[in-house]
TrEMBL record:
One of its GO terms (biological process) is DNA transposition. It comes from Mesorhizobium sp. WSM2240. It comes from the Bacteria. InterPro entries: Transposase_20. This is Transposase. One of its GO terms (molecular function) is transposase activity. Residues 2-29 form the Transposase IS116/IS110/IS902 C-terminal domain.
Length: 42
């Protein structure tokens, strides 16, 4: 996939942000295995 920098593919960065936002919104509504992963501290 390569690097996603500011000089990289803007559309691909946009898709990653939209996908991450959707996961966070979904996990806040439902307590699932994904929510425990998404909000876990490293």
């Amino acid at each position: 996939m390569g690097g996603i920098s500011k000089m990289g593919d803007r559309y691909l960065r946009h898709l990653l942000v939209v996908g991450a936002t959707a996961v966070i919104r979904y996990t806040r509504r439902k307590a699932t295995i994904v929510s425990t992963w998404a909000f876990a501290r490293p």
